Amino acid sequence: MEKDRISSMGNYIIEQGEVTTEELSKKFDVSIVTVRRDLKKLEKDNVITKIYGGAKAKSDKLETFIKRKSLNAGSKHYITNIAKDYIEDGDRIFIDSGTTVENLLNLLDDNIHLTVFTNNLSVINVASKMPNVNLFIVGNFYNNISNSFTYWGKSSELYSFNIDKAFMCTSGFTIKDGLTNKNPIEQEIKDMICKLADYIILLVDDSKVGKTSLMTYADVKDIDMIITNKKPSKEYIDYFDSHDIKYRY
């Protein structure tokens, strides 16, 4: 599909840094004309910059996990401190790959009984040391940029599991575009989890509200609760109230 190809092309350019249109044509088995059209869309989404004979990645599109971890650290701790109250003994939860949720398990009783699904390496390290946690690692390919696992090949086996609550992160959050993600290779997992989970909780700091990114993985109306660090604007509160979305700040 065109959308999948464009996403894959964007991710490939990010990984390579700079590529030629001829290289992309061979890699994705499409014409030069199609490549140029796809690059135009990626440039519009602020993922790449077109250059003579090819394209190069925006230098700020996928900051390293360590760099992202240090951004708005106080807000992230504030948010996870609220989120921890929505985890109950016996829950089956998914914890997303974003830096906002990586410390969530550290705030819980070490002896809590949980089933944890995650592709977040930091969460995996914590969960593996908790004696009463059943840990399921989502993904089979490690991405050191995002400190997370993604799928290389088929990922359909995840659909056979039941998940009570999903604690999700986002690169950007708007009413129009919903929950957006700048990392195309994580898109499949985020989309899949939002279809599986009974209750979706979005953890988002105010720096991401009103911003959008490359791909939408869920609409706002699909979210059950939003936890942030500042009171949302009237526009967002009115939308949340009209769609029965709970919010905490």
From TrEMBL:
Keyword Transcription: yes
Record keywords: DNA-binding, Transcription, Transcription regulation
Top-level lineage group: Bacteria
Native source species: Anaerococcus porci
Keyword Transcription: yes
Gene3D superfamilies per the UniProt record, alphabetical: Winged helix-like DNA-binding domain superfamily/Winged helix DNA-binding domain
PROSITE patterns reported for this sequence: HTH_DEOR_1, HTH_DEOR_2
PANTHER family, per database record: HTH-TYPE TRANSCRIPTIONAL REGULATOR IOLR, HTH-TYPE TRANSCRIPTIONAL REGULATOR SRLR-RELATED
GO MF annotations, alphabetized: DNA binding; DNA-binding transcription factor activity
InterPro entries: Carb_Metab_HTH_regulators, DeoR-like_C, DeoR_HTH, NagB/RpiA_transferase-like, Tscrpt_reg_HTH_DeoR_CS, WH-like_DNA-bd_sf, WH_DNA-bd_sf
Annotated ranges, domain HTH deoR-type: 2-57
Signal sequence segment: none
Protein name: DeoR/GlpR transcriptional regulator
Coiled coil: none
